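ligand=zinc ion
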Amino acid sequence: MRNINLNQPSTASKETPREINRRVVLNFIRSNQPISRADLARRSGLQRSTVSLIVEELIADKWVIEGPLGRLPRGRRPTFLRLNDQRVVACVDIRPLRTTLGFGNVTGAFTSVDTIPTPPDPSIAVEELGGRIRSLVNTRRDLSFEGIGISVPGRVDLLTHRLVFAPNLKWPITDIKGPLERETGLEVQAENAANACALSEMWFSTSDEIRDLVAITVSEGIGAGIIAQGHLISGRRGMAGEFGHVPLERDGPPCSCGNRGCWEVLASNRAALRYYFESHAQGPASHADDFGFQDLLQLAETGEVLANRALTRMAVQIGRGTRMVVAGLAPETILFIGEFTALWDRFRPVIEAEVQAQSISPEPTILLAAKDGATARVRGTIALVLQKHFAAPSSVMPISDSQRA
Ligand SMILES: [Zn+2]
């Protein structure tokens, strides 16, 4: 049940049922394309005339295109409808070291265009992104850009739309949205990377409807994106999901957030590297700077004992923190995103054992690994922009024509 907020009541306007039906039709086309008008009416429960009106509007707005012709045993051949996949979103995935830029369409298909080192100065980064997006829009005149979706390793304040908490990126409070919108003329939606991954799973996964899911990104830090009852939980000013900065060891190593012993300082990629270097009898290796997490994964695959031990410690710590998430939110599924999932067969039993230890839940939580974390993040940015047109304005139920009359 959701209370009506009397401070911001949204009363029904004449447009509301029409807008809801438009989104219902758009979603039926999205999940059943190609589909005929007759099938749309049958599946949605809307009248043929209503469907036809909405479809004409969607064609005029370039969301839907016609073709190809269908085949029936007899009679008139129906014209199939599908979403216009030339309508795209400019996608940006900002990570502490590298930023990826490309475009993606309504089906979640993504084309990477550029990968650049992330500038340490946010104003230079925003300027550079603006220039690259403008040139992308100019060179791809065949595409129609709907907006810009950005995944960031931090939180975005819901009130100011500024990036407010990005300890691993080390940017101060930054306005990405304003300058980028002025530079490109496109609307910008920025969101935390874990939230983007959660949205990506909800929008583009092939599994049945997702209601309760937590996406956990494990890389330089740890972030969580929470979907509860089909809604992304943002919390006060967008700060929900910072399990990574809950201290699990009071006297643990210092964290980039200023505290000590946070979950991410015990379970991130950097934690595993630290475990590995600490375990060397010769002391921390001198080549520490050019030895990264990928190198550690490769070493573990060759059977190197210390590398495997470091990754097991990381897995135990991922499991310990995940137990807190499971106890607090009771999600049906937890989706992990990160480089470590390349060795998911080794990580999974360790994480699972930690999560199930002393578990109070009657049913075990399903633990999954994203096939490709980079894709999950950018696909989430597509959903960020498209949800304005596709998502439920409130609780979406097709409103029948009799109800409208
Ligand atoms: Zn912290």
